[in-house]
Amino acid sequence: MRERLLSWLWPRSLRGQMLLAIALALFLAQGIGALLLYRAEHERIEGALVHNAAFRLGVAIQGEPKLPKGRGPERHERLRGSRVTMAPASPVRADDRRETSQEMELRRILIDQEVPVAEVLVVHRPVTGDALARELLDRRDRRYRGPRPSDVMIAAVRLESSPNWLVARVFVPPTERLMLRTLFGQTLFIYAVLVGAMWLMLRRITRPLAALTTRLERFAETRDSAGQLEPQGPDDIARLITAHNAMEAGIVALLDEKDVMLGAIGHDLKTPLAALRVRIETVEDDTERQRMATTIEDITRTLDDILSLARVGRPTDERESTELSALVAAVVEEYEDMGEPVELGDSARIVLPLRSTWIRRALRNLIGNALRYGAVARVSLTREAGAAVIRIADDGPGIAEDQISHMLEPFTRGDPSRNSETGGAGLGLTLARAIAEQHGGTLTLANRRGPGGAVEGLDVTLRLPA
């Protein structure tokens, strides 16, 4: 499940993967930078708050004789430009969290000013949770308008010579909230600029690559040099397209030369074979004449298979919409008309774009092999997982497991039971596999085993994408 989710989230295209990598790297870099800036700004603000509180407390301590000495409720006084209060008890509540680092800094500043400090307390509290802070803020707002702070820092000091606490309140400016909004907006702007620029650049690179990929797929299917791409994109991509066009032209020239050569070979070989077929009619010995005719027929069939195998990779006919079930039934009927033991089993109605001549050739090769080596051929057509599956089963001895993969290679016969006496040049399966691959399909062989594990025949599966 996890791997499936990752494969779904991770883009498959080059452009998507590069954009995602850039976005993640930018997010990491910007996050680290924003964190460092936030910490620096936070420490600067904390330092300013502590120094502000130290100044106010220092001024108040110098004028402490003028402050009321009563132990009543906390009272507000204005002395030499500083606002402090005097309280008989600590102003820290049970739910307050003490700021240890700020307490240490405040103590250091006061000691540097030779203030006899006994205790120091520093807490942060919401303005709405402190009545005196709300009163001070309301008085300030009547004089001028500005961003209203939401927190207040309360710094309290008890001197060694007094049981009372001097308390200073310093409002925390809303700078951090503004800074967070600024960093967030800056990050979005950088994302928009960099990711947008990278998207345009990657689009300029990947569009020619996508067009080249489509061209390669089409050329692999048709071997047609028509419709070559014009060099486009960056110089590296344009050079790649130019090199591909040159390679296509070379491949097409080689294929044309091969076709001419094959045509010449076919003509030059079939002509003397036809002459030999005529000449053997003068042989008086029927047995010898029949052997010679069989030999000539084997050579002709082998030559046809070789030429077909050479041409299958470059078909000249287009695919046409074909009802595969009818095509399979027609091939089976041909063998039934000749009295061959060929059975047609399950046959689903499937319509596919096919080259009917080639598929018919592949089926004849496979059924012929089944009859030659397995005495019987059972044919079925089903639809499985988006593919048309043709199975041909025989009752022969099967193929040794270590030889199955080699049986699809040209001129391979397998075990001794498949010898030259049964006919053929070992090209039937190779040609059938090439035809399957021409249609984007596969051809597989597998031994069929009975309940005891003994081989009961061979199953040949021709799978065509539907």
UniProtKB/TrEMBL annotation:
It comes from the Bacteria. Residues 264-466 form the Histidine kinase domain. Keywords: ATP-binding, Cell membrane, Kinase, Membrane, Nucleotide-binding, Phosphoprotein, Transferase, Transmembrane, Transmembrane helix. One of its GO terms (cellular component) is plasma membrane. The keyword Repressor does not apply. Residues 203-256 form the HAMP domain. It is a multi-pass membrane protein. InterPro entries: 2C_sensor_his_kinase (IPR050980), HAMP_dom (IPR003660), HATPase_C_sf (IPR036890), HATPase_dom (IPR003594), His_kinase_dom (IPR005467), HisK_dim/P_dom (IPR003661), HisK_dim/P_sf (IPR036097), Sig_transdc_His_kin-like_C (IPR004358). Its EC number is 2.7.13.3. SUPFAM superfamilies: ATPase domain of HSP90 chaperone/DNA topoisomerase II/histidine kinase (SSF55874), Homodimeric domain of signal transducing histidine kinase (SSF47384). Pfam families: HAMP (PF00672), HATPase_c (PF02518). GO terms for molecular function: ATP binding; phosphorelay sensor kinase activity. It catalyses: ATP + protein L-histidine = ADP + protein N-phospho-L-histidine. CDD domains: HATPase, HisKA. It is found in: Cell membrane. The chain crosses the membrane at residues 183-202. This is histidine kinase.
